Amino acid sequence: MSERRGYCTDTTDAQWALIEPVITAWKAAHPSVSGHQGRYEMRRIVDALFYQNRSGCQWSLLPADFPPATAVKYYFYRWRDEGLDQVIHELLRCGVREAAGRAEDPSLVVLDTQSVHAAVNVPASTTGKDAGKKVPGRKRGIAVDVMGLIIAVVVFAASAHDNLVGTALLTRVAAQAVTVNKALVDQGFKTAVVAHGARLGIDVEIVQRNPQQVGFVPQPIRWRVEQTLGTLMLHCRLVRDYESSQVSSESRVYWAISANMVRRLTGTRTPTWRGA
After folding, report:
1. In this predicted model, which residue has the larger pLDDT, 108 or 276?
2. Which of 185, 130, 122 is nearest to 161 (CA)?
3. Taken in order 112, 117, 121, 122, is the CA torsion positive or negative?
4. CA 249 to each of CA 49, 241, 254: distance values in angstroms, whole numbers, following the listed order
5. Tell me: the pLDDT tens digits for 142-155?
6. Domain Insertion element IS402-like, which positions (predicted)?
């Protein structure tokens, strides 16, 4: 058999060292009844997910030097359902914050939404049209800290009002990071989000845009969430929503940001499309 081809999205030894203990512990907690250790390397499964997220390819178009698509799909769905994708993401996020001299969890988050078109395989019952942005598809909402690291993700039909997205995000933020006591949102979020935040002990501030400003002007602190949304667009699998279920869409976001964080923690250069 010829030597495996490497891809710029593959984990380096240092990057894999950050993820491997979590997956090893998961495998130890899920022993095979027959005692079989599995045919495929877990590192190659993760590499395949990073590759697919970045390239946007279909399951059936995963390069042949990765494990079979059926195996990669199995672990993607299994880890999604058991929350391992979020466990990996959370450990990496805490590591990035600690490396920057910050506490593991933030006290302030910034919320925003992003509407994207949905692929033809996405059930119509989970899609809609964003009336403001004129985008038919799905709407993802994210909450980030001041470093732009994701604290929570939710996915709804694009027709969902930002109030619905905002309240769902705040509920997850409160469960995920009890230290959060303030949230910044834009004018798309209304008083319902402020009231829900108050019930959770989170002071929600609606940042008013200066009416004299023309065009897009980055707002202090809030620009971090815009930057993170832009970063997601570097992952072709996230440019459009290809996932049949919304929980799979959320998992894709966690894997995309995890890929970014392992590079950040190891000082690895981020792959760019400009050299393609």
Report:
1. 108
2. 130
3. positive
4. 13, 7, 9
5. 999 999 999 999 99
6. 12-88
Q: Are strands 108-117 and 203-206 parallel, antiparallel or unpaired?
A: unpaired
Q: Which two tokens stand for residue 102?
A: 């910050």
Mean of all residue pLDDT scores within the chain:
92
Instruction: With both helix axes pointing from N to C terminus, report the angle between 13-29 and 84-99 in degrees, rounded to the nearest 10.
Output: 140
The predicted-structure confidence for 216-237, as pLDDT tens digits, reads as follows 666 778 889 999 999 999 999 9
Per the listing, tokens 């709804």 go with 156
Residue at 214: amino acid letter = V
Cβ 172 vs Cβ 154: under 8 Å: yes
Q: Name the residue type at position 160.
A: A
* CATH numbers and ranges of domains, the chain: 105-244 (3.30.420.10)
d(Cα 268, Cα 18) in Å, to the nearest integer? 13
- Give burial (CB, 10 Å; 0-12/13-18/19+) of 120: exposed
| Cβ neighbours around 136 below 10 Å, total | 16
Dist CA 273 CA 186 (whole Å): 31
Beta strands in 61-134 (DSSP E): 108-117, 128-130
The count of other CB atoms within 10 Å of the CB of residue 141 is: 23
pTM over 0.90: yes
pLDDT tens, residue by residue, 10-54: 999 999 999 999 999 999 998 876 666 668 999 999 999 999 999
Which range is least confidently modeled, 20-24, 101-105, 206-210, 255-259? 206-210
Q: Is 123 exposed, middle or buried (0-12, 13-18, 19+ CB in 10 A)?
A: exposed
User: How far is residue 164's CA from residue 174's CA, in Å, rounded to a whole number?
Assistant: 16
